Amino acid sequence: MNRDWESVFTTWSQGPSKTEQERAENAERQIRQAIHDSEKLRNRNIKVFTQGSYRNRVNVRKDSDVDIGVVCFDTFFPVYPDDNVKAELNKSFSDGVYTYALFKNELEEALVSRFGREAVSRGSKSFDIKENTYRVESDVAAFFEHRRYTSVTHYLSGVEMIPDDYTPPRVRNWPEQHYQ
Predict the structure, then answer these.
(1) Cβ-proximal residues to 95 (8 Å cutoff; 6+ apart), any chain
(2) Among the residues of 38-82, which ranges form H helices?
(3) Would you state the pLDDT for residue 19?
(4) Hey, what CATH class is 5-179 in?
(5) Would you report the helix, strand and coil content of the chain in percent, each value rounded to 5?
(6) Is-contact 49 68, C-beta < 8 A?
(7) C-alpha distances in Å from residue 10, one per residue of 13, 63, 64, 95, 101
(8) From first to last of its 180 residues, what are the pLDDT tens digits of the chain?
C-alpha cells in the first residue's frame, strides 16, 4: 500500500472539527452531570478536568477519545521530605475516613447511573465510557489529591490513583504542571 503520509499527518495534526469538539465537550459535560446527580458525590470537593492528548491538542483527529480526570480533594495522599515535617504535620492531620476505593466505587455508580451499565466498563486505572452520536469515547480516571510537601508550610499539588490490580502500586501525576 502506497500512502501519502504527508497528507495523513497533515490531517491528523489539524484540530478537532466543530462536531468532534462538541462531542468531546458533551462527554465532559455529561460526566460532570453524573457527579452532580449523585447523592454520594455532589457535596464532595471534586474537580473534573480534561487531560492528555485532547487537552494538549495533540490527539489524532477522528481517532481519539477524551481523557477525563476526576479528583476528590476531601482526602489526600501525602509525601513528606523527612520525619520532622511528617511529625509536625501529623499534629494537624488525621487519617481520612473517606477511602480511595470508596470514592472510585461511588464514581462508578454515578457513571453507570448516567450512561447505563452497557456503556461503562471498569478497568484497573480508569473507566471507559463508550461513544455515541452525542459524545466521544471517554476514559475517566479517579484521583485523590497528591501532596508532595517541601516543608511544613509548602507542598506541590498533583493527583494520585491506586490501580485496582495494584500494578504499579500507585500512579502519581501532575496534570496542571504538565499542561502549563
Answers:
(1) none
(2) 52-55
(3) 66
(4) alpha beta
(5) 35, 25, 35
(6) yes
(7) 5, 14, 16, 52, 43
(8) 567 777 666 655 555 566 677 888 899 999 999 999 999 999 999 999 987 555 445 444 455 688 999 999 999 999 999 999 999 999 999 888 999 999 999 999 999 999 999 999 999 999 999 998 888 899 999 999 999 999 999 999 999 999 999 888 899 998 877 667
Q: CA-to-CA distance for 69 and 24, rounded, in angstroms?
A: 14
Show the cell assigned to 169. Answer: 502500586
State whether residue 157 is helix, strand or coil: strand
Q: One-letter amino acid identity for 130?
A: K
Are residues 56 and 32 in contact, defined by beta-carbon separation less than 8 angstroms? no
Length of the chain: 180
* Domain limits, the chain: 5-179
Find cell 462508578 and name the residue: 108
Q: For residue 45, what is its C-alpha cell?
A: 470537593
CA separation for the pair 70, 142 (Å, rounded): 5
